[in-house]
Amino acid sequence: MTYNPELARLGVYDARAPRYTSYPTAVQFTQDVGQDFTQAALSSLPVDIPVSIYIHIPFCERLCWFCACRTQGTKSASPVAAYLERVIAEIDLVAQHLPDGIKAGRIHWGGGTPTILTPEQITYLSTKLEQKIPRTKDAEFSVEIDPTLISQAKIDALVQAGMNRASIGVQDFALKVQNAIGREQSIETTQKCVDMLRRANIASLNMDILYGLPHQTRASVLDTVHHVHALSPDRIALYGYAHVPWMAKRQQLIDEAALPNGEARHDLFQLMSAELQKSGYAPVGIDHFAKTTDSMAVANKNGQLRRNFQGYTTDVMDTLIGLGASSISKYPNGYAQNSAKSSDYTRAIDAGNLATYRGIETSQTDRLIARVIEMIMCDFKVDYPSLKTEFGDDLSCLNTAILYLQKEFGSIIVFSKNGFEIVKHKRIIARLVAKAFDQYIDDNAQFSAVS
Ligand SMILES: C[S@@+](CC[C@H](N)C(=O)[O-])C[C@H]1O[C@@H](n2cnc3c(N)ncnc32)[C@H](O)[C@@H]1O
Ligand code: SF4
Predict the structure, then answer these.
(1) Is there an atom of ligand 2 within 6 Å of 250 CB?
(2) Is residue 263 lining ligand 2, measured as CB closer than 6 Å?
(3) pLDDT in tens, 12-65
(4) Which residues, 6+ apart, have CB-to-CB distance to 94 below 8 Å?
(5) How far does the centroid of ligand 1 lie from the alpha carbon of residue 288, in Å?
(6) pLDDT exceeds 70 at position 151
(7) How far apart are CA 331 and CA 353, in angstroms?
(8) Class of the 364-441 domain?
(9) Residue 382: phi, psi to the nearest 5?
(10) In terms of DSSP bridges, do strands 288-291 and 235-240 run parallel, antiparallel, or are they unpaired?
(11) What ranges do the domains of the chain cover?
């Protein structure tokens, strides 16, 4: 492993920063935004522009120790069935405020584990959604799938419902690592799931893998990458394990002494990234890889990659309506999040109310900075002329951050009169560069490591 003093000085090994799946980030949400905001935002959407829909299913049969997602474990079917009724009621409520005729261009079911739903529940949910917010002809419908909680009948129901994209969780194939993160999953089980999805002609298959997990070694992560390559997903998300036990209490089960330090994490990422590229995957953003024929690699090449709450996406829609407990919606003028506690969510829906409990109304400056941060995270460069086309000529709110970057990051960011770009082999610092523009950043807040 080679220690790079320049990266150390910049804070790549030990700095922490938001992942910037939104700006302002969720830390800034307040209860000033409630159901009135959502109601007004929904009813003022233009009818001829499709929206994205995200449905959160916050249940899992197993609760993996490493997982920071908002989800709860259950072996019983009744809480899932009761929750599903609330989501369907919420679809009804949201549809009442939407302009008649608006369509869904993207649908994503995430969690938790959406495949905890039975085939009948899958059909029920998709039918109700289609009745209230019908999809466009070319809509993309993606679902997060746990390979240990799937069956042919569930895949048939999902395909029947229109699923054309899937994402499956792998994390790591080494048994020692799996034991240390409380998630067992054999290669055979994963292969079986991939085979079922391929037979169903899924257009794009994503796999999530992680670096920075306990007991990972250079040899073990290469082994995982080789197994993943053999399964041939179209996209791979290579996330850095975010160890945030103060938020995700189940991570307290993880032995911190077995976690790699900042330099070792960085080294594992570089190694896995190089191996994926050797295997024919193009890098996309800070942590994704895609076959060059996949639409994400194509969007990246054409400068059309975007970033939203699900991470990197080819979704260019301005509005994302989040349904279900804790889900976040993005509207042209701000963000709104549903109650995260199932009981609060249930109470709001049962009372016939929208479940928004916090959010933020964005200013024109917020939206300009959001676009700058998105450009940094997606393209590693910022282009002033295109910002001016979108937001007008006054970019002065960026000046302080630009001066700071010129002083601190001048050796690895190239500046010109039309913008700036991070040099190719130092893109790992994107989150730190984005952070320089964040006008809300609280240096005492705790975020995950940047590399
Ligand atoms: C909703 S889960 C995946 C779907 C399904 N429940 C499964 O486990 O296969 C979403 C993904 O978030 C990522 N994730 C969860 N906790 C994480 C953490 N602490 N750090 C980084 N990534 C994490 C994992 O890669 C996981 O596959
Ligand atoms: S990784 Fe997936 S199955 Fe495991 S707890 Fe998280 S959401 Fe549930």
Answers:
(1) no
(2) no
(3) 666 678 899 999 999 999 999 999 999 999 999 999 999 999 999 999 999 999
(4) 42, 132, 133, 321, 323, 354
(5) 14
(6) yes
(7) 19
(8) mainly alpha
(9) -125, 130
(10) antiparallel
(11) 23-323, 364-441
- Give yes or no for residue 111 CB within 6 A of ligand 2: yes
Locate 210 and state its tokens: 């992680």
Q: Which atom of ligand 2 is nearest to the CA of 111?
A: 7
Judge if the beta carbon of residue 144 lies within 6 A of ligand 2: no
Return d(Cα 70, Cα 157) in angstroms, integer: 25
The CATH architecture to which 23-323 belongs is: Alpha-Beta Horseshoe (3.80)
Pocket flag, ligand 1, residue 69 (CB < 6 Å)? yes
113 lines ligand 2 (CB under 6 A): yes
How many A from CA of 111 to the centre of ligand 1?
Answer: 9
What tokens were used for 197? 């999805």
Atom number, ligand 1, closest to the C-alpha of residue 243: 19
Beta bridge partners of 166: 143, 205
Q: For residues 38 and 58, what is the distance between their CA atoms, to the nearest angstrom? A: 22
Count the alpha carbons within 13 Å of 278 in the hemisphere toward its beta carbon: 9
Q: Whose CA is nearest to atom 4 of ligand 2?
A: 64
98 alpha carbon – ligand 1 mean position (Å): 32
Closest C-alpha to ligand 2, atom 6: 67
Give the three-state DSSP class for 86.
Answer: helix
Using one digit for the tens of pLDDT, what is the confidence trace for 281-329? Answer: 999 999 999 999 999 999 999 999 999 888 899 888 889 999 999 999 9
Q: Name beta bridge partners: 207.
A: 168, 236
3-class DSSP state of 129:
helix
> Ligand 2 pocket, 60 CB below 6 A?
yes
Nearest ligand (C-alpha, residue 110) = 1
* DSSP string for 254-306: S-GGGS--HHHHHHHHHHHHHHHHHTTEEEETTTEEEETTSHHHHHHHTT--E
Which protein residue has the closest C-alpha to ligand 1 atom 16?
Answer: 67
The crossing angle, in degrees rounded to 10, of helices 384-391 and 364-379 is 150
